[in-house]
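User:
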Amino acid sequence: MIAVSIVIVNYNTATLTEGAILSICQYTTDIDYEIIVVDNASSDTISAIASSYPNKVRLVLLPENIGFGRANNEGLKVAKGRNILFLNPDTLLLNNAVKILSDFLDQHPTVGVCGANLYAEDGTPIHSYMPSLPSPMWEFNSLVGNLIFAVLYGKNEQFNHTELPLKVGYITGADMMVRRDVLEQCGAFDADFFMYYEETELTYRIEKAGFISMSIPSAHIVHLEGQSIDTNQRRELLKSISRRLYYAKTQSKIALFTANVLLSLNCWLRIGVYSVLMKPKETTYWKLIYKNI
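Assistant: Predicted structure:
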C-alpha cells in the first residue's frame, strides 16, 4: 500500500488543477504517493493534463457534476493510499506538506484528520480550520461580532500561529488529510451535501468515533480561495443550504431552532445596518442568507 492518495476534484478548473499537480510534483519527496483527479463533467481539457503525468496521475471521468463530496468519494473508491489527502484544485504546495501531514497521522493513531496552515497568494495567513464544530454558539458568536471566539482562541482562531500541532474543531476541506482506516470506520462524505459543510459533517462523525483533528503548522499550502467556483453569490447560497443541512443532521431540534433564531437576528441586524450605510452589496448578501435559513 502506498502512503498517500491525493484526490483532487476538477470542475472547469484545469489551469488551477495543473498548478496544484505541478506543486505536488515539485515539493513532494521521500514518500510514495498517487494523484487522482476526479473530473465533474468539465468542459475544459483536463484529459490532456492528466496524460502529461502518466506515472503519477489517474483520471476519473464522471458523466455529470455530482458535487464536491460525492466526487471525492469516487476518487476514494480507486485510491490505494493508507492516508487520503482531499486537496482543492486551487491550492499550491509550498513545502513537503504531503509527507509532513502523512507522517503525523502515522505517528498519532488518535488523530483522524489533519491539515496544513493555509496562505493567500501573497503569503498572508488565511482560514485554515475552525476551532470548534458548528453549534448555536457559532451563531451567537457571530451575533456579538466574534467577541467570544476572539477571547477564547485569540489569534489562533482560524490559523495556527504557534509552532506546535494544535487540536481544532475541523480542518477546511481545501487540504484535509484523513486516515483510510478512519474513513472505513466512519464512512466517506455524505452524498446529501453538494458543496460546503461536507468536510464539517464528516469530521463530526469522525469526532463521534473518538478521533481528533489537528492543525500542523509546519505544513504550508497556498489556497487561492474562491477561484474554483464562479460567483460569490452562488457560493454563499450553497453555503447557506449546506449549513442548514449540517444542523439538521447533527443537532437536536432545540439546537437547530436556537441556531436559526440567532442567525435570523444576525441577518436582520446586518441588513438594517448596511441599509442605513447604503451598502447594497452587503445588504443583498445578508438577505440571501436570511432567505435560506
